[in-house]
Amino acid sequence: MSIQVRNVSHIYSKGLPDEQLALDNINFDIYDGEVVGIIGHTGSGKSTLLQHLNGLLKPDEGTIIIGDVDITKPGVSMRDIRRRVGLVFQYPEYQLFEETVALDVAFGPKNLGLRQDEVDDRVEEALELVGLDYEEVKDRSPFDLSGGQKRRVAIAGVIAMKPQVLILDEPTAGLDPGAHKEIMQMIREIHRTENNIIIFVSHNMADVAELSDKVMVMDRGKMITVGTPAEVFTRRNRLAAIGLDVPPVTEMMYELKDRGVEVSTNVLNLKDAEEELYRYLRGKKAK
Ligand SMILES: Nc1ncnc2c1ncn2[C@@H]1O[C@H](COP(=O)(O)OP(=O)(O)OP(=O)(O)O)[C@@H](O)[C@H]1O
Description:
By secondary structure, this protein is an alpha/beta fold. The protein has a domain at about 245-285. The chain has helices at about 45-55, 80-85, 100-110, 115-130, 135, 145-160, 175-195, 205-210, 230-235, 235-240, 250-260, 270-285; strands at about 5-10, 20-30, 35-40, 60-65, 70, 85-90, 165-170, 195-200, 215-220, 220-225. It has a six-stranded mixed sheet, sandwiched between helices. The chain has a four-stranded antiparallel sheet with strand order 2-1-4-5, with helices on one face. Strand 1 and strand 2 form a beta hairpin. Helix 3 (about 100-110) packs parallel to helix 6 and helix 6 (about 145-160) packs parallel to helix 7. The longest helix has 18 residues, at about 175-195. The chain starts with a strand and ends with a helix. Adenosine-5'-triphosphate (ATP) binds near residues 20, 42, 45, 46 and 48.
């Protein structure tokens, strides 16, 4: 399973005075099992791109191939696309609506036309996968749960459809540090278990560095860089030029380098960065 995006452009309000080129000739490939982090300023086109990947929006130009299906071709069924690609919107908890957690999570798989016993199995599996105790939460109202738990229920509703591609638009937005950490852990667990393609948008560079195999940088509708976290975050000046930061650990390494200390500037892992720092401090003490 892979994704190929070729020459994709999207214009909002085409032909009107407020016409907006939101995607400008986008090209990239995503391969089986990759975790992809998308970064970019507000309005750079990230959400527009995500909505193209699950067929909610159609490009004005270009093609998007998911597995062996060109989802931009007329006549491709939305159901078929949804089976492959699950999109979790920003603040998905606002879209919970059923009386119980189990009914909410069952909504998607039911719509796929699965048998009731299969739907039940998927609901239980998905809730456990997002770190909730099935027996404990299944009959509760989703509205009685904490913010972090509500979000997990909403994500479980998408996972229960077993998408080969899971897309998350700012999955940790607005959460307190504890819930943030738990959602990050949950994403890792989903990937470990399902080994699906995961694409997520985040403004948190440390999360992007930690989770992603590949990072994509968007600016004003263009995909300006695609690479590993180390490749992308070592181009600090390029990111700064479009108003983006590097992860705090990388910033720390740059600070030391600026003071003449020999360190590798592509350190993205907190543990490696700490070791470099200790090495530096030990060296300083010895002098
Ligand atoms: N429905 C719409 N109609 C017209 N213009 C739109 C619409 N949705 C988005 N845009 C415009 O398209 C551009 C890209 O928006 P998009 O929401 O994709 O950016 P984004 O990178 O996801 O931003 P954010 O980080 O705030 O979610 C922006 O200039 C935005 O104003």
